[in-house]
Amino acid sequence: MSFDFPLLSLIIWLPIVFGIVVFATGNDRNSQLARWISLVGSVLGLLVAIPLYTNFDATTGTMQFIENHVWFERFNVNYHLGVDGISMPLILLNCFITPLVIVAGWEVIKERVSQYMGAFLIMSGIVNGVFASLDAILFYVFWEASLIPMFLIIGIWGGPNRVYAAIKFFLYTLLGSLLMLIAFIYLYLTSGGSFSIEDYHKLPIPLTPQILIFVAFLLAFAVKVPMWPVHTWLPDAHVEAPTGGSVVLAAILLKLGGYGFLRFSLPITPDASHYLATMMIVLSLIAVVYIGLIALMQVDMKKLIAYSSVAHMGFVTLGFFLLNAYGIEGAMVQMISHGFISGAMFLCVGVLYDRLHSRQIADYGGVVNKMPIFAAFFMLFAMANAGLPGTSGFVGEFMVIMSAMKVNFWYAFLAATTLIFGAAYTLWMYKRVIFGTIASPAVEGLKDISKREFVLLAILAISVLWIGVYPYPLTEVMHTTVDQLLAHVSNSKL
Amino acid sequence: MNFIPPDFTPASSEIFMLVMVCVIMLADLTAGDSRRYVAYLLTQTTLLGCALLTFISFSTEITHTFNGMYVDDAMADILKLMVYGTVSAVLVYSHTYISDRGMLKGEFFSLILFATLGMMVMISASHFLTLYIGLELLSLSLYALVALRRESLVATEAAMKFFVLGALASGFLLYGMSMVYGATGTLHVSQLAQIIQSEASSKEVLVVGLVFIVAGISFKLSAAPFHMWAPDVYQGAPTAITLFIGSAPKLAAFGFVMRLLVEGMGEMSADWQGMLIILAVMSMAVGNIAAIAQTNIKRMLAYSTISHMGFLLLGFISADSNGYSSALFYVIAYVLMTLGTFAMVMLLCRSGFEAENINDFKGLSKRNSWYAFIALLLMLSLAGIPPMIGFYAKLSVLQAVVNAGYVWLAVVAVLFSLIGAFYYLRIIKLMYFDEPETVEPIIPNSDVKILLSANGFAVLAFGIFPQALMGLSLYAIQSSM
Q: Do B335 and B251 touch, CB atoms closer than 8 A?
């Protein structure tokens, strides 16, 4: 399909330009202006992304909306953009979450509003860049640049332990990505001077270098996903980040890691992927089971959701390395659905935190008496988090468990325990926070959600139910691409 | 016998510089203390004039003059233009600082210009003696500049240390050169290369000489384990002088290494590669690890310099034009970042107050969000985070290292730069996450304001469009080899 308009560039740069404009509004005297410009920018960012879906050709697995310009000749690096069925839904998810985050911070953020809003807009553009890049260096630049706004968001607007969390977040992610950079340089030299990701897909590589490249990629992506045992930055970062930061981290940034596996690890090093698949599956299952148990023990709501994110992302990596169509598609659905659910869960905790300034489960109890509408929304998202049929959480998990069953009964058995653990930790938390007698005078004084909060949660609730009941529009766009990816991965590159 | 005068045109900018230094000295004598700006303006004019002369005489050909002792090629011209620009920026940045502290004497300008002349000679030398003369002219001027504040104890101590260790290093260098002369019978860089190629010389003596030369070079570059002087001198010298020492001389040192090791002893690259690997790894280790423990910002930047020099040396290891041009790009990026960083430190100084502690950066974003943003760009660039220029510098060097087959070395390098990221992040943390200790506003002169903003912006802009500088580096190296 010919599509000459540089749509992807617009999707990347529009939020960044708006972010710079928001920065330029300066100090807190103009904070209302900054809020409105950010909202306009983020909504425009979502609107310009819609043609990406409507003009998308779901019958082909090749890249679409391609833009290719020379960026710098010295190393043959190109400004090369394009999307396929894997990256397109993720870009839409990102564009969808950004306005929600802006609205979520509308009244809560009172200090340095323009910087907060601007950072989120720039972040949104950068993340779109990561998903749309088809050049390894361009990808890497966006990938690392996404650390900068998040680092500042956690460090400036975060909780009491924010400095520790911000630096840990930054260094952990940097460690992984630096080795990926060396892998890129190696591929650049073996491919005879190309940084094009599509060239790497075709490049034959012997097994030993493939394994080393796989490990370098694994470090970068495993930290981002995060997989056990490199997940420890996530609870810290989540807990200390402001609500908007947690939402973006869980809904968007974790997906970068998952996307990396699909775009780099599987197609560039297919033999190593097969060779190490068992290891990856075991690591994923540890994340699902063990982290699920850890989540059960949390007394801090945000930490609990953070651990539940790790467990759910374990499902994603599990789905990838089962290496069949159901597994990968299920994992993709799980990624999108986790974006909605975890974002919603963090928003719910944010609603409570804004009122009581506590994340401790023990400080709550009987909230339903004071906030019935909120309790209903929270119920829906808690159920979705536990994987209730009819919500988006069920679709992905079910697909992955089915595909695990094809490979090995015990994989499926262990993966399925999440349906128990997930229900246990989510619903137990829900029970302690929402039901019971009113725990304290502070809870007594709670007011139900405002219109702004209602709209936010309602939009997310609709999305969760929509994917839960009718996932076809989502699976349709990725189907051909996933098939092609699998066909590619099953061919040895030795 | 007829005397044929040498061709002066390749050295025209040096001659102009020398004449102008004398003019400035005399003019300053007559102008006196009240009209010191005369010397300042004349100095800037001199740099501009030199730049014009260099620019006009720019050619892709390699011209030798003074019986082959002097060379003018594209690399020399490009490096010299960079040096003029850097020195000029140094003067703009340091003007207020110097005059606030009573150091705005005529000597300041003439010493700076003599040092610059020394750098120019180093860059264009093609004979061991000219190389040495250039180096000593630079070094002696620097010693004097460090001691410019006579009454300051730390500055005098730093100058003393600098001088003694510098003299020792020059001794090493001379000893190495004499060995090389003994083995080959020539001091001409180009003849040396031919003789080494023809294998007419004793390899053992040459290698011993090479060891001494490399030791001398690493002292001048402040590469570990010859780095001991750098933290003390950086800390002890007035910040304006630290800025000078840390910036332009690194460009000259790059030229120096190119002339000595690459053009002169390129045939022995197998021998010096191993030495440079050790120096590079040690520098990255010492620099990055020791910097974490520093609370003095200048000391921290000194260790950061050491680690960057380690990275720079990595570029030479591949021993091909790809690697050298990466190293050149690295040194340009480094100078750009250093200029901005020290200018930031000086910005925080007021008359009677020296910004020395990293805590002086506390809460900068609340005191002045624009400069905090500039400092943010600089720190991220030093840490090698894209899209800043520091990332592309690291990328091109790493690419050269992997290309030469040292994947493990690239892994070591990135692990150390990960450690390095920590202390740059700490500065960002102080600026953005902490509350300010003082609410005093920051009021720079308008020229500093413009230049510093441009400098910080260049770090970002050359990162988004790196082709210009990368292409220039490659061109400079390829047309000179």
A: yes
Residues comprising chain B, all counted: 481
Average pLDDT of the segment spanning B292-307: 91
CB A128, CB A95: distance < 8 Å:
yes
Whole-model pTM: value is: 0.91
Q: How confident is the model at residue A237, as a pLDDT?
A: 84
CB contact under 8 A, B432 and A156: yes
User: Which sign does the torsion angle of CA B218, B223, B228, B231 carry?
Assistant: positive
Out of A26, A140, A170, whose CB is closest to B386? A140
If phi over 0 gives left and psi between -120 and 50 gives alpha, with beta otherwise, what is residue B278?
alpha
Rg of chain B taking only CA atoms, in angstroms: 22
Beta bridge partners of B350: B353
* Locus of tokens 């020792």: B168
- A18-26 long-range Cβ contacts below 8 angstroms, 24+ apart: A18/A42, A18/A44, A18/A45, A18/A121, A19/A117, A19/A118, A19/A119, A19/A120, A19/A121, A19/A122, A19/A125, A20/A118, A20/A122, A22/A114, A22/A117, A22/A118, A22/A121, A23/A114, A23/A115, A23/A118, A24/A114, A25/A114, A26/A114, A26/B369
Q: What pairing do the DSSP bridges indicate for beta strands A77-83 and B70-72?
A: unpaired
The size of the A-B interface in CB pairs under 8 A is 89
State what percent of residues in chain B have pLDDT above 70.
99
Contact A182 B411 (CB under 8 A): yes
Query: What's the confidence (pLDDT) of residue B300?
Result: 92
N- to C-terminal Cα distance for chain A? 33
Nearest to B414 among A72, A74, A182 (CB): A182
- Please tell me which residue of chain A has the smallest CA distance to B421: A171
To the nearest 10 degrees (0 to 180), the angle between helices A162-190 and A233-240 is 130
SS3 B296: strand
How far is it, in rounded angstroms, from Cα B338 to Cα B251? 12
B121: closest CA of chain A, how far (Å): 30
CB-count exposure of residue B27 (10 Å: 0-12, 13-18, 19+): middle
How far, rounded to the nearest angstrom, does the alpha carbon of residue B361 sit from its chain's CA centroid? Answer: 25
Contact of A91 with A238, CB cutoff 8 Å: no
Name the CA radius of gyration of chain A, rounded.
Answer: 21
Token look-up 């007035």 returns: B238
| Cβ count near B293 (within 10 Å) | 10
B110 in A contact zone (CB under 8 Å): no
Tell me the average pLDDT of chain A: 86
Place B114 in a pLDDT band, splitting at 50, 70 and 90.
very high
pLDDT of amino acid A139: 93
Q: Which range is least confidently modeled, A21-25, B70-74, B164-168?
A: A21-25
ipTM value of the model?
0.88
pLDDT at A483 over 90: no
- The whole-angstrom distance between B362's CA and the closest CA on chain A is 13
Q: Is the predicted pLDDT of residue A2 greater than 60, yes or no?
A: no
A94-145 residue pLDDT tens: 999 899 888 888 877 777 888 888 888 999 999 999 999 999 999 999 999 9
